[in-house]
Amino acid sequence: MDSSDGYIYILSSPxxxxxxxxxxxxxxxxxxxxxxxxxxxMDYKLQSWLMCRQVKKTERxxxxxxxxxxxxxxxxxxxxxHHRELFLLPITNDACLSVILWANLLALSL
Length: 110
Ligand SMILES: [Zn+2]
Prior knowledge:
- The chain has three helices and four strands.
- By secondary structure, the chain is of the alpha+beta class.
- It has one domain (6-109).
- α2 (55-65) packs across α3 (93-109).
- Bound molecules: zinc ion.
- Zinc ion (ZN) is lined by residues 38-39, 76, 78-79, 81, 83.
- Residues 13-100 form the Bacteriophage T5 Orf172 DNA-binding domain.
- InterPro entries: Meiosis_regulatory, Phage_T5_Orf172_DNA-bd.
């Protein structure tokens, strides 16, 4: 893997339309396990992931595209952190994945 390669993942929280969009350069399942441990109340499920180049840039662009859907500043009841990568997205998984793919194409062309 190139140093810019990685995975963008979408985690969903079954009790809401909140989705977490993040990236990792390790195994997606390992990252999921960490999130499930640090923030158990969200009961995260791995919805999708996409392997891509320029993964950090892609994540940044995807977050920017979804900026208006970003959850307001809050404190996580589990880990007490303010998660900036949470979005209220009542859309299908395919729609979400399409936006990430689009962000990736943008990241590669910029
Ligand atoms: Zn948390």
